[in-house]
Amino acid sequence: MTPVLPDLVVLPGNEASWADVQAVFGIRGGPAACSCQRFKVPGRVHWEAPPEELRARFRMETDWGDPAAETAAGLVGYLDGEPVGWVAVEPRVAYPYLKRQRLALKERGEDLADPGVWSITCFVTRAGFRRRGVSSAMLHAAVEYARDRGARALEGYPMLTEVGVDVPWGETHVGTASQFAREGFVEVAHPTLRRLVVRMELSPPG
């Protein structure tokens, strides 16, 4: 599939600077308050911790700007040298608090400790660059990134949306079902009325 934004340059978080990823997240609003920690810390910690604490946790997840770092936490996208997008993509074991999603997968007989299954859990597009296809391009890049690093399968946890009905970032930061479907993901579970678990097999089970 051809990327939506062919001019988008994407770097793993450990090759992008902390300043660049913070430029994408901004200093106010949902992304800045969460710092991609919703599925990494207990719910009470996530809702009660000050943004500074969550930001500190986020910063410790990789050595930003160090290509030799072993972890990346996600990808940063650039247009004309400006950081414009983020997607969180890591092995699924990095997200222990995907509560309803994990329950649905457990009911399917999934091994939740399988390091070969990766997850995409969050998209952020920088203010001023939205509605230009950045998140879809970041999704495409995340698929290739996971595949290149040996992931056997890749999952997303998007929201069902209706045409013409706007929803807040707080609900769609996980992506939309139609967005993942266009990339080739298929539904494997439906844990809530509006949330799906979707999956793409990247290589046969080993």
Write a compact overview of the structure shown:
The protein has 206 residues and is α+β, with helices and mostly antiparallel strands. The chain has eight helices and seven strands, in the order βααααββαβαβααββ.
Number of domains: 1
CATH topology name, in short, is: Aminopeptidase
Distance between the termini: 26 Å
The counted number of beta strands is 7
Question: Which architecture does the CATH hierarchy give at level 2?
Answer: 3-Layer(aba) Sandwich
* Relative strand content: 15-25%
Low-confidence stretches: none
- Average pLDDT value? 89
Query: For the record, what CATH class applies?
Result: Alpha Beta
Per CATH, the superfamily is: Gcn5-related N-acetyltransferase (GNAT)
Q: Shape from CA axes?
A: globular
Strand count, sense and barrel status of the largest sheet are: 7 strands, mixed
Strand order of the largest sheet: 1-2-3-4-5-7-6
The helix tally amounts to 8
Instruction: State the helicity in percent bands.
Output: 25-40%
Order of helices and strands: EHHHHEEHEHEHHEE
The radius of gyration computed from the alpha-carbon positions, rounded to a whole number of angstroms, is: 16 Å
Q: What structural category do the secondary elements indicate?
A: alpha+beta
Q: What does this 3D model show about the protein?
A:
With 206 residues, the chain is α+β, with helices and mostly antiparallel strands. It has one domain: Gcn5-related N-acetyltransferase (GNAT) (Aminopeptidase), CATH 3.40.630.30. The protein is 31% helix and 20% strand. It has eight helices and seven strands. It has helices at residues 18-25, 30-34, 43-48, 51-59, 99-107, 134-148, 169-172, 177-183, and strands at 9-12, 74-79, 82-91, 117-125, 153-156, 186-189, 197-201. A seven-stranded mixed beta sheet has the order 1-2-3-4-5-7-6, sandwiched between helices. Strand 6 and strand 7 (197-201) form a beta hairpin. The model has no long low-confidence stretch (mean pLDDT 89).
